[in-house]
Amino acid sequence: MASALELEQEKERLGIPESRVISSAFDPSSIAASTVVSRTPTVDDNYDGIRQSQYSDDNKLADSSPEHHVDIEGAKREFAKLERALTQHSLKNEKRDLEKDDEDDRFDLKEYFQNNHEANVANGIRHKHVGVVWEDLSVEVPDIGSKFFVRSLPHAIWATLSFPIFYPLGLLQSKFGPGWPTRPILRNFNGVLKPGEICLVLGVPGSGCSTFLKVIANQRGAYAKVSGDVRYAGIDSDEMAKKYSGEVVYNQEDDIHIPTLTVEQTLEFALATKTPSKRTRLPGITGKAFNEEVLNMLLKMLNITHTKKTLVGNEFVRGVSGGERKRVSILEMMATRAHVVSYDNSTRGLDASTALDFVKGLRVTTDILGQTTFVSLYQAGENIYNLVDKVLVIDQGRTVYFGPAKEARSYFINLGFQDRPRQATADYLTACTDPNERQPQPGANPPNSPEELEAAFQKSKYFQRMVDDRDDYRTQIAKEDNRDQQDFRTAVLEAKKSKVSETNPYTLGFLAQVWILTKRQFYLQLQDKFHLYTSFGIAIGLSIVLGATFLNLPDTTSGGFTRGSVMFNAMVVVCLDAFGEMPTQMIGRPIFLKQTGYKLFRPGALSLANTLADLPFSALRVLLFDIIVYFMVGLRRNAGGFFTFHVLIYIAFLTMQGFFRTIGIICPNFDSAFRIASLVVPNMISSSGYLIPVNSMRRYIFWLYYVNPLGYSFSGLLENEFGKLDMLCDGNYITPRNAPGQSVYPEGLGPNQVCTFFGAQPGQTVVHGSDYIKVGYSLDPSEIWKQNFVVLIVLFFFFQLTQYIAMERVKFGGMGGIQIFVKEDKETKVLNETLKERAAQGDAKVEKERAFQRGKTLTWKDVNYVVPVPGGTRRLLHDVTGYVKSGQLVALMGASGAGKTTALDVLAQRKNIGVITGEVLLEGRPLSTSFARETAYAEQMDVHEPTTTVREAMRFSAYLRQPYDVSKEEKDEYVESIIELLELQDLSEALVLTLGVEARKRLTIGVELASRPKALLFLDEPTSGLDAQSAFNLVRFLRKLAAAGQSIICTIHQPSALLFENFDRLLLLESGGETVYFGDIGPDSRILREYLSRNGAHCPDDQNPAEFMLEAIGAGSQPRIGPRDWKDIWQDSPEFAQMKREIEDLKAEGVTRSTEDTTKPTTYATPIYYQLQIVVRRALLSLWRSPDYTWTRLFVHVFLSLFVSLTFLNLGTSVRDLQFRVFAIFWVTILPAIVVNQIIPAFIINRMIYIREASSGMYSPIVFAVGQLLAETPWSCVCAVLYWVLMYFPLRLGQGSGGKAGSGYFLLMILAVEFFGVSMAQMVAALSPSIKVAVLTNMPITLILTTFAGVTIPYPNLAKFWKSWMYQLSPFTRVVAGLAVTELQGLKITCRDDEFAIFDPPSGQTCATWAETFVGTFGGYLQNPNATTQCQYCQYKEGNEFFNGLNMRYENRWRDLGIVFAFFGFNIIVTIVASRYLRYAKR
Q1: Could you give phi then psi for residue 949, rounded to 5 degrees?
Q2: How confident is the model at residue 1118 (pLDDT cuts 50, 70, 90)?
Q3: SS3 letters across 1060-1105
Q4: What is the arithmetic mean of pLDDT over 847-856?
Q5: 30, 513, 511: which is closest to 274 by C-alpha?
Q6: Average pLDDT over residues 727-736
Q7: pLDDT confidence of 953, banded at 50, 70, 90?
Q8: What pLDDT score was predicted for residue 33?
Q9: Residue 145: pLDDT over 80
Q10: Distance from chain centroid for Cα 25
Q11: Which end of the chain is more exposed for a tag (fewer CB within 10 A), N or C?
């Protein structure tokens, strides 16, 4: 027994403070889980507390690994040290005599938690041993047919219009009527998996692996019916889902994390939501200290401590590497403290080294925590396979093997299948379920169908062994009186915080969840610097523009209406800033679903947390905005007035934020959310009381005012500003009055004059603001707090409640893997029938392959590539040399970071940054400008237009990349041969969007082959993400192409031995872009193996040469074999010298070869007008097949125009109706703001596709930019016509002197506005690097253009500074002016009784005599000119008098229309230039 001094020294060496604590399962019992069930070790002096793995020294997994790799045994030793240290800490706390050598007093962490600390003796700490038993498990899904056809616009319209009818009927049918017919996808599964075991689930794609993993993790919501019995430590699935759903979790194959959080923050959040109660922690240890210690241990365990402060990142945010992100996913699963975990293909896209690290991590967690682990993996190598305990093989939803992993291969060999010694066991097992891959032994007759394989398994000893194991496990539980189950229940309950009920599946209470979520959301916003800076910058910028526009309003009646304008604008700008909450809710939905699935928090807690976390940022942002606007404008300058102004606007913002969040939660996609928002928001703005006072609203819409948060906010703002404001009636509102240079009337307000401002009292020069809002808006200042404020608060809490309910109740899920097809027309029907006939003739394809273009020879010598990095440069490739000949298939391989893709990009001339040196020759000659057209490059990312079919995608490539003089018929025929060769006959009419991974890979290759490359075919990671059989099929296809004469070079991640043998030659790179081998591979990799063996690396017969060679050069976790660097060995080898001679010979042969077929050195294969025709045709088809997009545009225009029509229906000729006509016209300028939100994302997504296509020289940037605009043009015309019809005629416009003849001008102007809006959106998108940046410009542009259009602030009231440029620069100035003068020219105005200004003339004078000079100067008319009292003056006689003082001229209306079209043309030019020079794609 060690001395106390030695123990203290050991504790100090480990850096363990007195309070140091480590969780034993993050739930203190599970450390011992792996030692209790059937294999409890003997406790002795050498026992480290961890189950000794059967996979340690024999498989070299315990060897010291380089930095950032997972070391299983190292992780266990680290855990054991911490455990021993804590044991000592606990002993010290109990004041035991450490000098005493008494075995009975010896104490370790497991015994501490089993036997209880003295503070917990009464209750005890339970172990969580969750073995899983499944019996006759079957899963069924709705049988809704085998083919789905693409939806178009009529389908989308019908779906929207019929929704109110069919949705309730669907709910009734699902509850009371017969359900959908179903079909089984899993049949009668049986098995058992004990704690501490890993089960590998194998099967070809579509066999049911993912379904099994989800169902075994109790994720049943996506399926119509799940039958059979699944029990977790004896607990049935229903009770598990209700009470313990957080103990059984499923991890999908994609790594879904919040990218802008660090690794530390991600794991801290998961730990914080699962922090056990004090009852299961050491005394004196706080929850914070507990989580900190566990976090450090987790990071050390999987060797990613160095990533602690690094962002997790994703495809668009730079963060940790892909392998490290996988480990973060593992640790997040560990932090859930779940004990049954399912990982679905979590190694997709990883190389063998990273995948091995991942599974090592699973082995660590399963051993240490005693978890029950299920995992499916693609292309699992032998080292990975050796880490699992059991394997489940599935064939079309049937169990064909379940048992020990070590015996699975021999089982299938004994069934009669041919063994392939060099094929990885996992690949071999999967191949035995694939009719195209499995081979019977000579003379054997193995089972052929899934049913036969299932029957054979059920008759085998392994099935009986499984049944016995299952019965034994059940018996064991029964004998112990269900002790494991009771311990599990008790452990879960004790881990919960106080006041958390037994039936609650969460560890923390609701308020604690809200607090933790609030902290996370706060840091999330704080760390998003870009959004933080831009949101504050835009708010401050807009406030300055708004304040400067209405700078220092006078305290007179001339500033009365404009005060309302500035308050309304300020309120709308702030409130509509919350519009961005809708897409935010949808973007964050995958992460939300994953974390709520882990039961980290209840869904509704996030709604409240979002509001609380946003308060500090939004409160400060709105406060700055309000301060600048309020004091620049000169509103009532006192503290009470300002803070009331701020509170009303801010509460309105929070209310609208809740409203938009609710929409974002309940809607399945942005298009449906946008339709709802576009229907509600214009009504909110219009019914807020600014454009139309509530007492002037139509009776059928006035109720909107009383449910409108903007209405209550605006009313409160008016009451706050005008309630204590007295305004002097200035000259503009005095009737009659003098014009400049006149002295007919008294200066100021005389006894025979009247102030016409609302609320003015006869004979008083001062207008009380309270009278103004009472008469003009029917508002009472006393209601500001008792009505407006109270209702806003109620609405705020109402939308908080709707968010909570929506998050708790609304669930979105879909049926994955459904392929959507385009219905056949006459042409495609004939073509598809022909393809089916040829498919039955295997030899026909061989003849087709021979018709492919013969490739050319590419040589490269001493190629170097240097890129700029902060602080200097970095060399990525160094003296790379090699060649590829016609008919050869060359593999480019190496470890991660060796420069494989970089080398391929350099050879294909796809790099646009850095410096490339060396010699790259095609047929012995330097590369010409046509090299991109002579080659094809299938990139790793399968980027295609998603709405095209497979045939259309290939034809698009063929039309634009093959020579123009080749006929269309010949190109079409060539595409058919490609479809046939790729074996895509059944998917020729399928949409690219719905293709599976393998089919998309084949399509990517097909699109490149359709160009008929004359030189080479480059492929980057064509097998990435494919299962073993799909990868083999793909490489086999490449082998066929090479046999037909094509020159092919491709990068490939560690392939299986059988796949590797299909390549002719290998270019092997090591770290730093150094060549370590270039040469033949040979049958059975004989030539490569001999080269390695000759230099000291002997490949065992049972090992994959493709993996061994990487280990030999030190590419994996092992050091290289041999004392010398393999690049030096290569340069000194005879093979290197021979290669150099061969290159010189190939160069000489190429120079002497005929050049008759050399492509002309032109950038594009086809003329620009032909490019435009093909590109526009595809874009139009894409829009037609995107019905949600097009229907949303039409929906917005239809309902906006209907809303305007219903608001201003049947306008008359009164003064108020005249103003309403102008407001109705003003709504036209809102159309571009609505269009922008749709066009920008669509343009940028299409630009991503164009960048990929442009690198192949398909079409020019001019064609792309113009094509995007032309494709939108028909829809712009339809939208404009619909808006015009539904707005112009219901309003009874055209009553002026021009009559209905002005309707044509209205249509032309609306068309111009529509074209301007689309082109402006595309221009902004072309200038922006991302959607996130582009959409931020919408609000500033809209506010600036509409503010200076002359409506919200009339031209005479604008400051000279704004008049001189911004007023002239806004196209909406021309829109409003052109439409207003067309409508108002010659319009006869008839005042209503309440619109007359009434005054008394001097004694002895008639109304006409007294007011004649005034009327003649200012216009208008007298209703009773001969009266001597109560003169009735109407401000306008004709509409001309209204617009003449607003800088509008009827004779300029066609000029104004032309200027709007000129803005449209300017946008097009900028879009073209930006598309040409700003692609934002660096390679």
Answers
A1: -85, 170
A2: low
A3: HCCCCEEEEEECCCEEEEEEECCHHHHHHHHHHHHCCCCCCCCCCH
A4: 58
A5: 513
A6: 87
A7: very high
A8: 32
A9: no
A10: 33
A11: C
Nearest to 1128 by CA among 1113, 1138, 1142, 1111: 1113
What angle (nearest 5°) sits at the alpha carbon of residue 884, between those of residues 882 and 888? 140
Q: Where does the pLDDT of residue 509 fall: very low under 50, low under 70, confident under 90, or very high at 90 and above? A: confident
Q: Over the range 12-44, which residues count as b (16 or more CB within 10 Å of their CB) and which as e?
A: eeeebeeebbbbbbbbbbbbbbbbbbeeeeeee
Cα 682 to Cα 685: distance, rounded to the nearest angstrom: 5
Query: Which tokens in the block code for residue 1180?
Result: 């139009």
Q: How many whole angstroms from its chain centre is CA 432? A: 38
Residue type, 1452: N
346 in Cβ contact with 888 (< 8 Å) = no
* Neighbouring residues of 1068: CB distance < 8 A, sequence distance ≥ 6: 893, 894, 1075, 1076, 1077, 1078, 1109, 1113
CB atoms closer than 10 angstroms to residue 222: 14
Mean pLDDT to the nearest integer, 1031-1056 = 82
Tokens of 1051: 């990068």
Asked if 320 and 307 touch (Cβ cutoff 8 Å), the reply is yes
What DSSP state is assigned to residue 100?
-
Kindly tell me if the per-residue pLDDT of 259 is higher than 90.
Answer: no
Alpha-carbon span 226 to 242, nearest angstrom: 16
**Exposure on the CB side of residue 1451, measured as CA atoms within 13 A:** 0
Q: How is residue 20 written in tokens?
A: 């140091």
Tokens of 825: 């027309």
Which tokens belong to 299? 């990071």
Give 904-943 pLDDT, tens digit per residue: 989 988 887 888 999 998 888 888 777 877 788 988 777 8
The stretch 1020-1046 carries a mean pLDDT of 79
Could you tell me which residues are beta bridge partners of residue 376? 201, 344
Q: Identify the helix (H) or strand (E) that includes residue 1350.
A: none
Using an 8 Å Cβ cutoff, are 1404 and 761 in contact? no
- Helices 639-666 + 603-633 axis angle, to 10: 140
Q: Are 79 and 301 in contact (CB under 8 A)?
A: yes
538-542 CB contacts, 8 Å cutoff, 24+ apart? 538/1336, 538/1339, 538/1340, 539/577, 539/621, 539/622, 539/624, 539/625, 540/624, 540/625, 540/628, 541/1340, 542/573, 542/625, 542/1339, 542/1340, 542/1343
> CA nearest 611: which of 810, 789, 791, 796?
796
Q: Which among 966, 970, 1005 has a CA at the least distance from the CA of 1166?
A: 966
For residue 614, give the nearest of 648, 642, 653 by alpha carbon: 653
- CB under 8 Å, gap of 24 or more: what pairs does 575-580 form? 575/649, 575/652, 575/653, 575/656, 575/709, 575/710, 575/713, 576/656, 576/681, 576/1339, 577/535, 577/539, 577/653, 577/1339, 578/653, 578/656, 578/657, 578/659, 578/660, 579/660, 579/677, 579/681, 580/660, 580/1335
pLDDT band at 79 (very low <50, low <70, confident <90, very high): low
In terms of pLDDT, which residue wins out, 619 or 233?
619
Q: How many CB atoms lie within 10 A of CB 1165?
A: 23
Q: What is the pLDDT of residues 681-707, one digit of tens each?
A: 888 988 888 888 888 888 888 888 889
Whether residue 35 has pLDDT greater than 60: no
In angstroms and rounded to an integer, the radius of gyration of the C-alpha atoms of the chain is 38
pLDDT above 70 (res 1330): yes
Q: What is the DSSP secondary structure assignment for residue 784, as one 8-state letter?
A: I
In whole angstroms, how far apart are CA 602 and each of 261, 319, 513, 517?
21, 28, 8, 11
Burial of 321 (0-12, 13-18, 19+ CB in 10 A): middle
Most confident of 335-349, 525-539, 1401-1415: 1401-1415
Q: Is omega for the bond preceding 1167 within 30 degrees of 0, making it cis? A: no
Please give the backbone phi and psi of residue 1340, each rounded to the nearest 5 degrees, phi first: -60, -45
